[in-house]
Amino acid sequence: MVQGQSALGSAANRNFISNAGVVETNDGLVVIDALGSPTLAEELLAALRTLSPKPVTHVLVTHYHADHIYGLQAFQAAGAQVIAHRAALEYLHSDTAARRLVASRDELFPWVDEKTRLVEADRWIDGPTRLSLGGVEFVLQPVGPAHTPEDLVVHVPARRVLFAGDLVFRGRVPFVGLADSRQWIASLQTLLGFAVDVVVPGHGPASTSARADLELTRDYLMHLRRTMGEAARNMEPFEEAYARTDWSRFEGLPLFKAANRINAYNTYLLMEQESK
């Protein structure tokens, strides 16, 4: 795997804020997620050529957030087949995705520029899918809508490895955005049932203490829902609810200051809707 920085995407870090995984098979290399710019993807391809003469045959996409997919065009140009969940099509064809790319061309220039484009998968899957690639079995398990509608995790049973995408932010506060946090929590419970020794998260270092790291993300989401849900039911103003909430378990984690308030606000709005 390659590990992105625990930071917001910027021109200074080339949008290298997410992880990508690589599994070697008899026929080639299978990459999980494509990093946050074409340049990063090209550098990963170059690094892989120093490790193995085998080509990258497939890229498995856990979800279509920009920091995981702006490198897809480099892998596709190198001959890799892109596989993702069909639910991503709605986002890909949305104004949100188009506006995000326009903004990224400005904010992340020159690493994301006018040549950077959104890439559709070569193969869309609709449900749980088993792939045998070069003698290695990959289990693609949809777990959305959670962090995104199209969330996939990739389980490699023979290696006892799970590529969890952004369902798991290890050792840092996740970006919840407009996620379905109830389903996200349920999906984390599903992941706890996989027989794995290593979890590769979408952000942060690989984990050999899978349960503890899955539970950290789960517990953070549950804390958001419990505290903001109570405030929404009591019609307590958000700012008052936020100020009185005990964040001590999580406030020492990376990106707490950058992410927590907006996570709490979005969860407050979500819980308002759920209580109606």
Description:
The protein has 276 residues and is an alpha/beta fold. α6 (181-191) packs antiparallel against α7 and α7 (210-233) packs across α9 (256-275). It has nine helices and ten strands. The strands form two sheets. The chain has a five-stranded mixed beta sheet with strand order 1-2-3-4-5. Strands 6-7-8-9-10 form a five-stranded mixed beta sheet, covered by helices on one side. The chain is 38% helix and 19% strand. The protein has helices spanning 38-51, 66-69, 72-77, 88-92, 95-107, 181-191, 210-233, 238-244, 256-275, and strands spanning 21-24, 29-32, 56-60, 81-85, 123-125, 129-133, 136-142, 152-156, 161-169, 198-203.
Residue stretches low in confidence (pLDDT < 50, at least 5 long) are none
What is the strand content?
Answer: 15-25%
SSE-based structural type:
alpha/beta
Strand order of the largest sheet: 1-2-3-4-5
Classify the helix fraction into a percent range.
Answer: 25-40%
| Total helical segments | 9
Largest sheet: 5 strands, mixed
User: Which whole number gives the mean pLDDT?
Assistant: 94
For the termini, the CA-CA separation is 44 Å
Gyration radius, to the nearest Å? 19 Å
Overall geometry: globular
Instruction: State the order of secondary-structure elements, H for helix, E for strand.
Output: EEHEHHEHHEEEEEHEHHH
Number of strands: 10
In short:
The chain is an alpha/beta fold and 276 residues long. The chain is built from 9 helices and 10 strands. The strands form 2 sheets. Strands 1-2-3-4-5 form a 5-stranded mixed sheet. A 5-stranded mixed sheet has the order 6-7-8-9-10, with helices on one face.
